[in-house]
Amino acid sequence: MSELTNLTIVGARDLLAKGEISSKELTEAHIVAVEAARPLNAFITETPEKALEMARASDTRRAAGEAGILEGLPIGMKDLFCTEGVLTTAASHILDGFHPTYESTVSRNMWDAGAVLLGKTNLDEFAMGSSNMTSFYGGVENPWRRSGDNRPLVPGGSSGGSATAVAARCALGATGTDTGGSIRQPAAFCGIVGMKPTYGRCSRWGIVAFASSLDQAGPMARSVQDTAILLRAMAGYDAKDSTSVNVAVPDYEAAMTGDVKGMKIGIPKEYRVDGMAGEIDQLWQQGIKWLEEAGAEAVEISLPHTRYALPTYYIISPAEASSNLARYDGVRYGLREEGATLDQMYEATRGKGFGAEVQRRVLIGTYVLSAGYYDAYYNKARKVRSLIAGDFAKAYEKVDAILTPTAPSPAFGMGDKMDDPIAMYLNDVFTVPASLAGLPGISIPAGLSAEGLPLGLQLLGKAFDEETVFKVAGVLEAAAAFEAKPAFLAA
């Protein structure tokens, strides 16, 4: 069984195409792996019966010569994507019992491409968090451990369940969503690849909303090529989403030519932040060297408004969250607590249904949108956001892509930083700027810390130029030759 779960998407696809394995066999192996990994708490809802049904249907289609891009490949679906008839919770008590009567566009695209659903992966509640510790269903454990230390670590957030499932070989790949780094940061913490595409590349329809101008779906897998395959299936224009952009979806896999000769790679001087671990900077320098050895040219650039990115993000995203989460009132779906009056019912439902971090962000968002503070906070943040996007636009006049660290540290212990929201928010310092600008970014595992934990490098590209991001990422991945495996697999 372990031989099948250690396959990449590319490897599994090739064996399926040759008829050497069936989707049913591949899915059965992953169902066993999901069960074995339950102590990690990566899944909120497992769907083994549905997975086997989908696998059998996939084998039938393949026999008829009708194989799709993801035909027969078992994946995890972040429990933020509405899945028809399957419990969808956003890791929140307030959505208890919610079984959508419709399918999100991204998940529908993946099922149409032949993918198999193993289950719904755990996350920070409503995607609000950088640790995956705010889930109503309990925190997710990172399958990695520090050398000689068995204390559990966070997988990062909010897509920590997806990252853990992929790293622990429970799924060939998984979906995530990235609002301020929620695909890239957990990918770095768990030693896998995570890709946030350009805002508007993937439809947001049917994804439980956090911050509508920032949320973007993307793939997580164990290689750059695997994420390229997944994104091709996920992406596409959707008339049901007003922010979906009607542009052609390229063959991202074909873009990975391995040739970056003559390309200019931007190195932003503002990303050398105070308190960043020396080993993070060393890895960054090594990444620069790898790309130079491949024929690219490193160019120092300036993104002068970078230091305003985190405060800007933590005004805009809570403001949008306070608006989006107003729909959870106990009337239409999910949790309902009784009260003597309508207002009391609202208060009781939201007080019990929302966790502490969600309540904090709703309160912040409501405050910055309130009369007297809207111009002082929200409108000012919108203006700064435009300046940050302008910094990137100016930089891309002279570089093809930008290389930075993904996170300022490796994974930290479960429970650490939970009593200090600011320390938690600082985990997103390298990922938030590109999110505010709506740009594509990918995290690649590139090395290990002194304590034996994965460290990631981030590549950022121009809007709707994921092809260049994948091309450079493939070269960086080959140079890094990251083959370390988490301690969980040896247990």
Description of the structure:
- The protein has a single domain, classed as Amidase signature (AS) domain (Amidase signature (AS) enzymes), CATH 3.90.1300.10.
- By secondary structure, it is of the alpha/beta class.
- Helix content is 37%, strand content 12%.
- The chain has 16 helices and 11 strands.
- The two termini are 16 Å apart.
- Helix 3 (23-36) runs antiparallel to helix 4, helix 10 (309-324) packs across helix 12 and helix 10 crosses helix 13.
- The mean pLDDT is 95.
- The radius of gyration is 21 Å and the shape is globular.
- Strands 1-3-2-4-6-5-10-11-9-7-8 form an 11-stranded mixed beta sheet, with helices on both faces.
- Helix 9 links the parallel strand 7 (264-268) and strand 8 (297-301).
- It has helices at 2-5, 9-18, 23-36, 48-63, 105-112, 160-167, 184-190, 224-234, 278-293, 309-324, 342-353, 356-369, 374-395, 421-425, 432-437, 466-480; strands spanning 43-46, 74-78, 116-121, 173-178, 193-196, 216-221, 264-268, 297-301, 401-405, 441-448, 454-460.
